[in-house]
Design goal:
Length: 322
């Protein structure tokens, strides 16, 4: 079997162009042709461009794979997505077509996301982006930062990542509070925080950080009313999912200078070049870097190669069912 009539593999959304170097794709054999896509494929072009491929390798939720797109991919036999879960992949539609779905291990994403959360918090408090630009531009200090010791850190969600952020907040001398729908005082204490009412978390916190899974019940959980309760100059951090926050309400509050924000996630990604969030001076923006580390990506791609090899042997690993 030659590459021309063999298995075609598409590795999507390889933004940094590192996938080829982080795993032994050649170990799959000469009959497997692997192609790497750095630029996102527009939804309108996805069916035509992906139709020839036998295997799609997805980086987290960057490329949604819904039933309509799946139906337009006649050669698709295997999907591998990185991380443990991917709500943007319609596993039921894939199962109905007899297409195997595999995932990878999570890597250090939880730890790395907690670290980035703290970095965004410090960047906002000390006006670091502006002062970085000052130094690059030959200027000197122009802003007054704020210390975090004695301030209140409110965590919306106290799971694995939230608890790590709580630990750093306490190390900085912050008072740490938390709220989520099913959080009890005992579980909050075990996670390093004090349980407070949802309204109090927004009105009393100097920093509010989101650590919740996006679901129908949590979409827009931070809306106009919640933002209005926040103290003037308070910091809102989101390293979870963009749609947890009402984007229009957030943009309005930032343009009015009522709050500050550190944002790693957005409603639509990549964030369009002309998006209004790019023009606000009181927001620190990063391009969804929470899980993006060398060791995590190496694990992702090594696991992806392992999944393809297992599927070819008839013994797929880490199979995902609907």
């Amino acid at each position: 079997m030659t590459q021309a009539d063999g298995i075609r593999v598409a590795v999507l959304d390889d933004y940094q162009g590192v996938a080829a170097q982080l795993a032994e794709w050649g170990s799959l054999g000469p009959e497997v042709a692997v192609e790497f896509f750095r630029e996102p494929i527009p939804r309108a072009e996805a069916a035509a461009r992906l139709a020839p491929y036998t295997v799609l390798c997805l980086m987290r939720e960057r490329m949604p794979l819904d039933a309509e797109l799946i139906a337009a991919l006649p050669n698709l036999r295997l999907v591998v997505f990185t991380g443990g879960r991917n709500p943007s992949v319609d596993t039921a539609a894939l199962a109905a077509r007899g297409i195997t779905v595999c995932n990878t291990r999570n890597g250090e994403g939880g730890v790395a996301t907690a670290e980035l959360t703290v970095a965004l918090m410090l960047a906002c408090a000390r006006n670091l982006p502006r002062e970085f630009a000052n130094m690059t531009g030959g200027r000197w200090q122009e802003t007054l930062g704020e210390g975090l010791e004695g301030r209140t850190l409110g965590l919306l969600g106290l799971g694995r990542i939230g608890a790590r952020v709580a630990a750093v907040g306490r190390a900085l001398g912050m008072r740490v509070t938390a709220w989520s729908p099913n959080l009890t005082p005992e579980r909050a204490e075990a996670g390093g925080a004090a349980l407070v009412a949802r309204e109090a978390l927004f009105s009393e916190s100097d920093v509010v950080s989101l650590h919740m899974v996006l679901a129908p019940a949590t979409r827009g959980i931070v809306g106009e009313a919640e933002i209005a309760r926040m103290r003037k100059g308070a910091i809102l951090i989101n390293t979870s999912r963009g749609p947890l926050i009402d984007e229009a309400a957030l943009v309005a509050a930032l343009h009015e200078g009522r709050i500050r924000a550190g944002l790693d996630v957005f409603d639509g990604e990549p964030l369009p070049a002309d998006h209004p969030l790019r023009g606000v001076p009181n927001a620190v923006l990063t391009p969804h870097l929470g899980y993006v580390t060398q060791s995590t990506f190496r694990m992702f791609y090594e696991d992806t190669v392992e999944a393809i090899a297992g599927w070819r042997r008839g013994a797929p690993v880490r199979v995902v069912t609907p």
